[in-house]
Design brief:
The complex is a heterotrimer of chains A (95), B (190) and C (983). Chain A is 19% helix and 35% strand. The mean pLDDT of chain A is 95. Chain B folds into two domains: 88 residues, Gyrase A, domain 2; 82 residues, Aminomethyltransferase beta-barrel domains (Alpha-Beta Plaits, 2-Layer Sandwich). In chain B, 49% of the residues are buried. Chain B contains four helices and eleven strands. Chain C has 983 residues and is α+β, with helices and mostly antiparallel strands. The mean pLDDT of chain C is 95. The chains are: A alpha+beta (95), B alpha+beta (190), C alpha+beta (983).
Amino acid sequence: MIINHPLLGPRDAAEFVYKGDASLINRPNWQADDAAELFHEYLYLRDNPAGQHRELWYHEQGDRSWLIVTRNTLTHEISNVEFARDVALAERPKK
Amino acid sequence: MPNYTLTARTPLDGFSHDFNGVSVTEVNGRSIVSIATSLGGGEALSKALAKTYKLKIPEPGKSTVSSLDNAVLLGMAQDQTFLVFDDHTEDKPVDVVSKHLKDTAYFTDQSDSYVMLRVSGENSRSVLERICPIDLHPSVFPEGSVSRTIMEHLGTVIVHEKANTFLLMSARSSAKSFLEAVEVSALNIG
Amino acid sequence: MSQINRIEGGLINRSKKLSFTFNGQSLEGYEGDTLASALLANGHRMVGRSFKYHRPRGIFSAGSEEPNALVQLRTGAYQEPNTRATVTELFHGLEATSQNHRGSLKYDFMAVNDLFSSFLSAGFYYKTFMWPKAFWEKFYEPVIRAAAGLGRLSGQDDPDIYDKGFLHCDVLVVGAGAAGLSAALSAGRAGARVILMDEDFCMGGRLNVETLSVNDQSGSEWATQALAELSAMDNVRLMTRTTAYGAYDHGIVGALERVTDHLISSENKPRQILWRVYTKRTILCAGATERPIAFGNNDRPGVMLAGAVRAYVNRWGALPGKRVAVFTNNDDGWRTATDLAAKGVEITAVIDSRDGQPPVDVPKGAAIVMGGRIVDTKGRHGIRSITLSNGQQIPVDCLAVSGGWSPNVQLTCHQRGRPTWRDDIAAFVPGGELPQGMSVAGAASGNLSLSSVLLNGHDIGNSVVSDLGFTPSKVKASSSEEETTGISAFWHVRESKARAWLDLQNDVTVKDVKLSHQEGFRSVEHLKRYTTLGMATDQGKTANIPALAVMAECTGKSLPETGTTIFRPPYTPVAIGALAGRARGKDFRPSRLSPSHSWAKEQGAIFVEAGMWYRAQWFPRSGETHWRQSVDREVTQTRASVGVCDVTTLGKIDVQGRDAAQFLNKVYANAFAKLPVGKVRYGIMLREDGIMMDDGTSARFAENHFVMTTTTANAVSVFRHMEFCRQCLWPEMDVHLISSTEQYAQFAVAGPNARKLLQKVVDSDHDISNEAFPFMGCGEITVCGGVPTRLFRISFSGELAYEIAVPTRYGDSLVRTLIAAGEEFDVTPYGTEALGVMRIEKGHAAGNELNGQTTARDLGMGRMVSKKKDSIGNTLSEREGLNLENGLSLVGFRPVNRSEELKAGFHFISKGNTANMANDEGWMSSVAFSPNLGHSIGLGFIKRGSERLGEIVIATDPLRGGEMDVEIVSAHFIDPEGERLRA
């Protein structure tokens, strides 16, 4: 398996560690009224799509970046690789 | 003052050996300081590096070379470089770097974190292809290229210093295992 | 003995004779021979016994598809069973033996199985050994085990070495026959980085075995010339003896190079290399495999594939027989007759299953039977005659059979591509979705004439490189004469009454396939499992398609409707040793050595593996015969005076940035933001689900600079987790992390004399008195005349203690210095055992307590979890289920009878209750013998533990046995007020 790192190019999966669904970057607000419920959903409820799946990979034996990899669970094709940090910043509500 | 003095020991006690078409030598006397760019601090660091070391911040995967202290700046990640330079101070490489770069970035001494091996000679790529998963062909990994990858389960930084010469940096505690990985490769070829 | 069946010609080096033995008999061959060609040249037809029926078997093919000629090579520890003679390169001194017989090869006692063949049909194991059940273990299984299998392993460690490696290229060409050479020439000439690999030791594929010409040269001459051009290109790498055995995710190809299998000794070089090939494009030029036709007793030695017969004659000058008949359903089979006749071999008959006229000129003297059928053969140890459906018997000593050619589609299917059927060539061709980047050229794609193969290889090579952005060269494709390739599908002779073999390796006959259909096995995958068709070393390369055809006949479906079984890697067998590579014995994984390792070894320390680390467990002194003596002494000496322990292995993370304090506040459950500079704090880290992840300390060296420690075991995962927090959860924070575990040699110096000892090495301008450097203080100092040092006043043992860290290069020197300077205090080094005893005495949690199931509350640290801030795990730690009134809590235990020994893993039951799961109230997590208290002590979790101090409960170990009364006590067995560590 090869992940095409946005800066470093194609790298073998042996350099990476898998974490899980990319939604893990959207951590709920601890002060919300229903924080317990939100954290429960955040941590335990996942979609299991047959098709496109956005998932977190850590380039542990590389530049130590967390990446969001869009992978098709049916074909194993990887169509997009982004820095998770960039995605997290872009998805922040504007102040 | 105490009646005791401490003596330094290198990870492999100065290993050096010539194999068939390849030499493997432990590199010592170099300091390594990690330079982490603070949020929004890239410009100040760039200026300081340009002024003192006459260096540009390399892209990750590239390196730049300075005449000051024979320094090489390795692009490790988007916000991190390693400055590798001649060690001529009293074990305080961070002080040396801070003297030049002030507080434009966060510095961490990594000089004792690595064993450094230089693999050189006409067979160096043949030796490395047994343990290095990344493509070292000059068209893909030209001189000056830097990469962090995994060799025989060990995280390794590889630098293409010049034609057929590669610098490998891996964790100091597993230096013996790492040397063995390189030695076995050198013995196993052709 | 002379080579009685050796004739003129071929690609062997007759100036280089090679001696070898087969079943102890000395024979000779030539350089360039395979074991199979040399055996044939020496007149050996029978080379083994079949798997189930122990029928005599001979050489069937001339390649890696061989189902029959499996032999054992070499002797002693080097012995290798089930090696295909057809791809075994001959070398001087080769020792080969036949397999699967008791007694001699000719007179095998197990051949009795053949007489009972009607009981050994498909599914025989499943049916026969079901009853009585008690017979299985004592009788059936031992008997089956003794009879099963072909060759035998040596039973010794494999003395060879293996290696692996990584290759990169633009274009990988698999197979160096006419298509592969043409494709490689196209790609190489365009300037792409090309790897061309072939399983044979001589590249050229069927160009080396056919008499067809290319560009007015012989095929093999053209191949030699193409190889010369390719090897002159810097951008092309040629790899002989290398099989691409699997096509994996994202275009990766696995390949096995047999480096020294053709040598008598590996001479300390790897025998085989497993390559992982990263390629942008793969051109599969794997050729095609000829299939047999099934008819009565078609398994006798001397019955061979037609293409193989002429291969032996043309490439090796080895004659499989002197009176040869051909049985074919296609034009290509006739080529064997014409090639052999041209060499003066007697062709007794050509039997073509098709009606009509012979497609080529008939060899002189041969009987031609169009629309013919062979129903049976005769000959005990080798074929002597064939019987046609009209009853005519024709004497032969070799029968060349051709049922047509099947493209080698295997690699195209490794990513679940499914081949499609082509009626015109009666074969499956690559279809469906091919592995990423793969194209197929030549016979593998269904081009079965040489001229089409050359053109196809050339064109695909060009289109692949232009796709990659290279400019194809203008050189034209090489060409060959036209040939006829007509075929009419014909799979088995229905008129045969005798058993007709489909799978020679697994002894599967037409009858077996029909039987399995009768018994309800309708899917090809079921057929395979029930009959074992297509299993083992050859993976049914010659057997599958004819067997599927028979099955299709039974079901009334077409062949494409029946489909094939799924092809999986490896294409040909790969030794487990090659997959393991170097990862054997001590090289299974790297080892990490702490800075004091050499010194500890000199002291005779006993080491324990903790992850990859080697840590000193205890340091035996002379006279100590039991580990407990050493450990007790280390504990006693440390508590009485001073001890030194290497704690370098703890993870150290350098945390810097304007938001470093805020960041730690978020990853630790307890508060860190207001930790003053120069202070250390104990911190607990939770997982997001509220369970304890890790614990450690963080020291603040400057406003924006912390040094964190983690447990040894979690160093990597905590760093990963913190990077996740930094990059994904709080990317707006200015904070940086870098591991400094390797950077510092760190030693714990513990005991009442710890300060006095340190004062002997610390430079005088640094004051480490209790006032200047109190408990939980930290600072940067120098030792031994200027060596930069970090000092932490922290204690895991419960004693007055420090941790001292110097750059790793000084670690070895520092431990020697501390021991030398501590002589006046009777200092002792202590290992992880004494460390464990002291932390249990002190009631400190460690890995056994942080087992991924326990919460801060369970550990008695519930109040540390701040409710005033957001940090990982704090919200979910408040869940009801983690805060039950009768929840677990960590307490100490001691045996009521003090002489009894506690065991970790004990479960706790209230007095009066039965010891069962329902009454289980907790478990013992850590135990030790406390030399200070003089009895066994333990830490453990029990429901409402902190409220039950003084209660006696039952500790039981149902798994290993043992039960005793234990008393619940405070976890702090030593110095509960913490006076010592503040001294």
